[in-house]
Design a protein that fits this description.
It contains 34 helices and 27 strands. By secondary structure, the chain is of the alpha+beta class. The protein folds into six domains: about 140 residues, 2-Layer Sandwich (Beta-Lactamase); about 150 residues, Beta-Lactamase, CATH 3.30.450.20; about 100 residues, PAS domain (Beta-Lactamase, 2-Layer Sandwich); about 160 residues, 2-Layer Sandwich (Heat Shock Protein 90), CATH 3.30.565; about 130 residues, Rossmann fold; about 110 residues, Four Helix Bundle (Hemerythrin (Met), subunit A).
Length: about 1000
């Protein structure tokens, strides 16, 4: 019996260890009774510490785990409940909780068997599917992640070899535990026969000896034999019963008394069958003994008088008298309750596995399977048992080799097979042999882990990687094409802009002289013919400039370079000033110009008055051009108003020639007019309305037109303007020059002699004093030597252009003198750059003398206080040329390489030292100021800078070290900064000159 229990325990232990998932047996109160190595691994707690502890303590949510465990007892079984194990090191493992109860011999629930399936693979699978969908749109980082996931997926399947060595040793033991030796029963029967023989022998002795002696001897022998027989019967720990041919109990041992709970005297003479839970089955087994002379291991259940059940294996044989007549049977009932309980326990362990599990005999026959196997194969358990293991795989020979390896090596690990079930299921088989307590191999337990999903994911990952690489290649190719197309478009746009800029400059420069001098000559005494010819030249020049402006504006809108300002302006006054430009033409054609202005419109608005003027000028200009009689009406109406903005409708209507209905849809296209006849009769390029449309739509508006042939046209558009509380001065109209009325000193910076002459003539007519500088460098020298009220600065000049000169004036001389750019290139790029370097305004070439005069007057009036301040600064820091390279030439013996190296070193080190000097002064860091000035001082002598500045620097050092007369330091530092900056400019020019000379 002890051997049997040991055998069953080994069997149960092997079943527990056979599971690849954590498997735990629990008592009713939730204490851990046993577990496999997988449970130890997932918690990080040793087996001996786990046993007896609370099952719930190893989850992140103990209360939830307790409730799930209670549901097992409530429902008998649960499946796929998500929980999370917590490892001793803090690592979390998501599992699906599956459990079922197991019972004792009476059917009472003893505890529960729990399997926790690690679902990391499932979660990763879901994540991988998501990754798969996104892979096409990802870069190489996703490919790395895909590769890492493949590796991780493969590593998940590796199991601890210890599990496999300990797995599944005892499944077949269940069927062998019942075999018992019935030798005792046979011996008991033989003793009965011997007893009878002794009686006969006694009779013979009685005949031969004296009757009394024979009787006494026979009696003694009989007593001795009976005592011996009784001792044999009682020696059996299993219930042993003798039964007559009528089924009545003749005798029994104490084991039967104990197992039934009835006294011996009550048992003798009673029906043998009454003590079983199934009397009819007991009777059939009893009758089978008489029919076959013996039976072995028939399962029955004895019933105790208090209701307790005891499972037994019924073994019996007949016994005869000396004549061979059957007298009855001798029965041994082996108690197998514990064995059956262990068998049920083992079965629950098998069924707890979510993977198919096969119990295979050494001959390859399947002796048992779990429900998972039935589900996967689709074959009933009863049909599977007794068939060959390899019958259920696509490659039978490989399956045969697999189970043979188990018996040869004692185990297999990750043996790949494919189960056939209509569809195909990829599995990895892990198996090990199980043995009895003597070490004999009884069979093998093989677990088949379903890896179909894993294989599918791996396949998807491989395909996804291929697709991703292909998509990446296609995307890179497409991106390359797009980048090349974008670059080509940008290059084309830049080329277009550069072309327009160059053409604008090249056309405007001579036109500036043509139109300018034409206007000058028109002011002289001329004959009527001369005046007529010059007027024609002026009108042609003006028309050409309008065309150039139209083309440039259109190009700026197309390139997205058109900038719309948001500045406060008076709409009514601005509109009136603009309409004054048409008075002469209106009078010449005897037309009426009517202005309808809505008085509800706020006085000051935020917007771009220049672009608004351009739109209305184009529309009114067209109306004047195409109207020979009647009137032109300019309407301005408030459409909508809220707290922040207003919507205003502008309209220009006329009584002119009108537009054919079929042409209305095209008149806003480039180079389009109402008809070819219109172009022939009235001239024009057809760009005006295209520009109007672009300007309106770029500000969020829509322009529309209604027209009837010979009755006129009505153009209208709506624009939004922000409201403002800012106050603005009433706009000054462009004034006619008031010659001789102003004493203004102008510095003209222009390199072309023809333009210099024109500017001299215009400024002389205005009565202004003027000086001419042919480049920026000369202009700076003149500015340092003399005070001016305003500078007219050309942009493109040799040696130092207008941008560089303005930057120096603003940042080195710190002068705020007004600077007006004279530019033949009015593209947005140049104008933005003008404003960025500090210019105040610009005038396009050809120069309009009225506009020039107006802008000079406006800026001088506005900047008069600043100009006076700048005069003071200029006088105070009038340096002239501050460097003299004679000393450097002597020291380097006129070696150009050494000279360039020394100058380069000065240009590299001086600006940072100046910055440090200024920052130290600001922070009152006297030590840093002293150190910075100390490094600057030696350069004064080397670069031929006046010793006055060296002495000035030493004073700064003195004040910094003593921190006395600190109020005087800022002025000294400012003078040092000025001379050092000017020295940098002069030395850079010298550096380039030396470099050019020694090429």
């Amino acid at each position: 019996m002890k051997r049997t229990n040991t055998h069953e325990s080994l069997y149960a232990s092997s079943l527990i260890e056979a599971s690849l998932d954590p498997l735990i047996t629990l008592s009713r109160d939730g204490k851990i009774m046993d577990m496999n190595q997988a449970k130890v691994d997932i918690t990080g707690v040793a087996r001996e510490k786990l046993i007896g502890t609370n099952f719930f303590d190893y989850f992140t949510e103990p209360k939830l785990a307790r409730k799930v465990y209670q549901d097992v007892f409530k429902h008998g079984t649960i499946s796929n409940v998500p929980l999370t194990f917590c490892h001793a090191n803090g690592k979390l493992t998501d599992v699906l909780f599956n459990g079922s109860v197991y019972k004792d011999e009476k059917g009472y629930v003893v505890g529960a068997v729990v399997v926790a399936r690690d679902i990391a693979e499932q979660k990763w699978a879901a994540e991988l599917r998501k990754v798969n969908k996104e892979l096409v749109f990802q870069n190489k980082e996703k490919e790395k992640r895909a590769a890492e996931l493949i590796i991780a997926n493969k590593e998940l399947l590796f199991q601890n070899q210890e599990k496999e060595n300990r797995a599944a040793e005892l499944v077949m033991a269940n069927k062998e535990l019942g075999f018992q030796n019935n030798e005792k029963a046979k011996r008991a029967a033989e003793l009965l026969i011997a007893d009878k023989e002794l009686l006969f022998q006694n009779k013979e002795k009685i005949k031969q000896e004296s009757k009394n002696k024979q009787l006494e001897a026979s009696s003694n022998s009989l007593k001795l034999a009976s005592q011996y027989l009784l001792s044999l019967i009682e020696a059996s720990r299993d219930p042993l019963i003798t039964i007559n041919t009528e089924g009545k109990i003749m005798d029994m041992n104490e084991a039967l008394v104990n197992i039934t709970g009835f006294k011996r005297k009550d048992l003798i003479g009673s029906d043998f069958f009454d003590y079983f839970t199934d009397p009819q089955m007991a009777r059939e087994v009893y009758q089978e003994v008489f029919a076959k002379d013996s039976v072995a291991d028939s399962p029955l259940t004895l019933l105790h008088r208090d209701g307790k059940h005891t499972d037994v294996l019924f073994n019996g044989s007949v016994y005869n008298d000396e004549k061979g007549n059957v007298l009855g049977i001798v029965i041994v009932a082996r108690d197998v309750t514990s064995q059956n309980l262990l068998s049920k326990y083992a079965l629950s362990l098998i069924e707890a596995s979510r993977d198919p599990m096969f119990i295979v005999s050494p001959t390859g026959k399947i002796t048992d399977v779990n429900e998972a196997t039935v589900r996967v194969t689709g074959v009933l358990r009863s049909t599977i048992i007794g068939t060959h293991f390899f019958d259920y795989f696509t490659n039978s020979e490989k399956a045969r080799e697999g189970y043979m390896q188990v018996f040869d090596k004692g185990y297999i690990v990750d043996y790949p097979l494919v189960i056939t079930d209509g569809s195909l299921i990829d599995v990895l088989c892990n198996g090990s042999v199980y043995k009895n307590d003597r070490g004999d191999v009884l069979g093998a337990m093989i677990v088949a882990r379903d890896i179909t999903e894993q294989k599918r994911i791996e396949k998807e990952l491989i395909e996804a990687k291929v697709y991703a690489e292909l998509a990446s290649f296609i995307a890179e190719e497409a991106q390359g094409k797009a980048e090349r197309a974008t670059q080509n478009a940008e290059n084309a746009m830049k080329a277009k802009q550069q072309f327009l800029s160059n053409m604008s400059h090249e056309i405007r420069t001579p036109m500036n002289a043509i139109i300018g001098f034409t206007k000058v000559v028109l002011k002289t005494d001329l004959t009527s013919k001369q005046k007529e010819y010059l007027t024609a030249i002026k009108m042609s020049g003006d028309a050409l400039i309008v065309l150039i402006n139209d083309i440039l504006d259109l190009a700026k809108v197309d390139a997205g370079k058109m900038i719309f300002e948001q500045i406060p302006f008076r709409l009514s006054a601005s509109l009136s000033a603009m309409l004054q430009l048409f008075e002469t033409k209106i009078q010449e054609k005897n037309l009426n110009l009517i202005k309808n202005y809505d008085s509800k419109i706020p006085e000051v608005l935020l917007g771009d008055p220049v672009r608004l003027h351009q739109i209305i000028l184009n529309l009114v200009s067209n109306a004047v051009k195409f109207t020979n009689k009647g009137e032109i009406v300019v309407g301005v109406k408030l459409v909508k108003e809220d707290a922040k903005k207003v919507s205003i409708q502008f309209s220009v209507s006329d009584t002119g020639v009108g537009i054919d209905e079929g042409r209305i849809g095209t008149i806003f296209e480039n180079f389009q007019q109402a008809s070819s006849e219109t172009s022939r009769l009235y001239g024009g390029t057809g760009l005006g309305l295209a520009i109007v449309k672009q300007l309106v739509e770029s500000q969020g508006g829509i322009i529309s037109v209604e027209s009837t042939i010979d009755k006129g046209s009505d153009f209208s558009f709506v624009l939004d303007f922000q409201k403002t509380t800012e106050k603005v001065d009433y706009e000054t109209e462009i004034e006619e020059p008031d010659f001789g009325s102003h004493s203004i000193n102008v510095l003209v910076v222009e390199d072309m002699a023809l333009n210099q002459l024109l500017m001299k003539t215009l400024l002389d007519d205005f009565g202004y004093d003027r000086d001419i500088a042919s480049n920026g460098k000369i202009a700076i020298e003149k500015l340092q030597a003399k005070s001016y009220d305003i500078i007219l600065m050309d942009l493109q000049m040799p040696e130092m252009n207008g941008f560089e000169a303005t930057h120096y004036i603003r940042n080195v001389l710190h002068s705020k003198i007004p600077i007006i750019a004279l530019t033949a290139d009015v593209t947005t790029m140049d104008l933005e750059k003008c404003m960025a370097v500090g210019m105040n305004d610009y005038i396009p070439k050809p120069v309009d003398e009225r506009l020039l005069h107006s802008k000079i007057i406006g800026l001088v009036k506005k900047m008069k206080p600043v100009i006076e301040s700048n005069k003071h600064v200029s006088q105070k820091y009038n340096l002239g040329k501050c460097t003299d390279l004679n000393y450097l030439i002597q020291r380097t013996k006129s070696n150009p390489v050494l000279m360039m190296e020394m100058i380069s070193l000065y240009l590299e080190q001086t600006p940072p030292l100046i910055s440090t000097m200024k920052m130290s002064l600001k922070n009152k860091d006297w030590n840093s100021l002293y150190a910075a000035v100390h490094k600057i001082i030696p350069s004064f002598a080397i670069m031929g800078i006046s010793s006055d500045f060296e002495n000035m620097a030493k004073k700064v050092q003195e004040f910094a070290s003593t921190q006395q007369q600190a109020d005087g330091i800022p002025a000294l530092v400012l003078q040092l900064e000025t001379v050092c900056n000017q020295a940098c400019i002069e030395l850079e020019i010298e550096y380039n000159a030396i470099k050019d000379t020694n090429k």
